[in-house]
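Working notes for the structural subgroup meeting. M.R. asked for a predicted model of this chain before we commit to crystallization trials. I am recording the input and output together here so anyone reviewing the notebook later can reproduce the run.

Input as submitted:
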Amino acid sequence: MKYQSLLFFFWLFSLVIVTPFSSVRAQSSDSFTVYVFLLDECRICQEVAPELNKIYTLTKENNIGFVGYFPNLSSNDAGIQKFRKKYKVQYTLSTDFEKELAKRFAATTLPEVVMWNETKNELVYRGLINNLFYAPGKRRHKITQHYLKDAIFAVQGGKYPVTKTTDPIGCFINYSENPF
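Returned structure, recorded in token form:
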């Protein structure tokens, strides 16, 4: 009996150590949310807005939460509503002037997305929406990688994405401004 218990322990230990993160199964009962950090005046945020609308449709179909946050004080209610109307944003938009969510997820750049497993309180994906921009002001003619979509499809398939983080490109979150 001791021998079987010991073998089971070693089998379980090797399974945990050897199994790569990308093959760990996400539970179908897990709850996921995509947090999008935006700036209404940022050209890159404006450029990716149509893509975010398409991705929002995917999240709705897969029961994944999706919400946009404007952490910089320069994004006032009028600017946010203008952004919503111009880019036909269907998902919830809110402010994060005190930067509680931005700090929680260590967001630094606008746009930046965080896909979070709410059930397990863990990061699924953080960074770029896609690779349209490869440097500030430098864009590709064609998107070749869809990081956020890939993360959603991975979760839908019961897995975590192969790419867990990318370095976002865009405008900076102004952590030095005081919301009061």
